[in-house]
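Hallway conversation turned thread

IA: we were arguing at lunch whether anyone had actually written out Aldehyde dehydrogenase family protein end to end. Turns out nobody had. So, for the record, here is the sequence (485 residues) and right after it the structure tokens. Reply here if something looks off.
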Amino acid sequence: MPARQGLFIGGSWVEPDGGRYEVIDPASEGVVGWAPEASRDQVHAAAAAAREAFGPWSRTPAEERAAILARTAEHIQRHLVPYADLAQAESGATTGTARGMQVAVAASRLKRYAKGALEPVEQPLPPQINEAGPFGAATVMGALAVRQPVGVVTCVTSYNNPWANPAGKIAPALAMGNTVVVKPAPQDPLSVYRMAEALEAAGAPPGVVNVVSGSRPEVGEAAVDSPDVDMVSFTGSTAVGQRIAEVCGRGMKRQLMELGGKGAAVVFDDADLASAVRGIGTTFSFYSGQICTAPTRVLAQRGVYDRLVDQLAAYTGYLKVGDPRAEGTVVGPVISAAHRERIESYVELGRKEGARVVAGGERPPHDTGFYVAPTLLAECTNDMRVAREEIFGPVVVVIPFDEEDEGVTLANDSDYGLIDYVWSGDVARAFRVARQLRAGGVGVNTVGRNMEAPFGGFKRSGVGRDVGSYALHAYSEVQAIVWPG
């Protein structure tokens, strides 16, 4: 990593107008490096460079775009260990997560969209017979729906995965012929500059990919409001997403928003309890709870409620909290001291609201690092703030219910609707309930994912869908071409 990281604009490494700021290791609280602070003018210059590169890149044969993405994936795989070490230092991820779920997934997504660049973009439509009229004689009209690139896409990425999240935006956008301006999260931007280096080494032309970072809100605002930007792809909080949407609305810019979540896990009396406990426990502690797909709101039917609480508490006890570089660590630090305090304030709020702290609830005994103990809150109700608001930490609440309809009603009584889960031994019931849940995705007896399935949210959890071919559609406009047959 360069000692003085520069911005990446128009194929050049540029000195930042705003100097540099510290990137802090959440585990050691030491300085990982110094990230560049872009000025508003530099962000707009990056968007202008992307605009200039768009025409040639959009006309580049799909095979060439595919080859660049594939070479980028190979470059990342060759440098997996040092890249993962950097990601770990910036984000506090465990070694296994940094290697397997951050850097390796980024390479996998670039490979997937190298193939995606070659997917057909034309869809023939049935011919239509038109009677004679004001527009001419009777004729048969042929039609073709063609997916075209949107143009310049601003990608605003999240701090919980500084490799997979940017790759999941950059790769499909480039595959479709768009150019991008990437504004990484301020907490861990250095990894995204390594991705830019990988794309540059793979032959991405100047201006196709631009990276501008900053700790000030003005940097992100400039990346959204630039007149050269046609679309914004954002992953982050609902509150920030709403502000971005307002700006996009004024400019009629396309949006792809993956926002907050408060996933419900509906566990019925006949569920495989061991499977439910393992799925919930693993997922709500993953990334130290900084994951929008976590089932942090557990709805347990009365017949299984007490056993589920006891077993979740026992499972939580096995989740080793500590140095993410140490063997056996499951839960590393959260991203910052401020975020740790926010999570702890929610646990205290839960106590005041009447929840019972069954496990966790106290700060782990570490001299340095932003650690939070996995925490289980029982005897909750769905109107508590800890049950309604996204905490984005290793905290899960458990709420009882009696009948199936009540479970569905409670699950849907949320501002969010990203991913919910259902556990039941009755497969017919599980799928019946899944169809009634107002969420973009539902896991039936699993927390696993199918990476070709559409991903996105209902309600305040987002706008649009990505993953698989759905991402290619998200980064494209549909053009109709008609002709007389």
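OS: looked through it. The chain is about 40% helix and 20% strand.
IA: good, adding that to the notes. The two ends are 60 Å apart (CA to CA).
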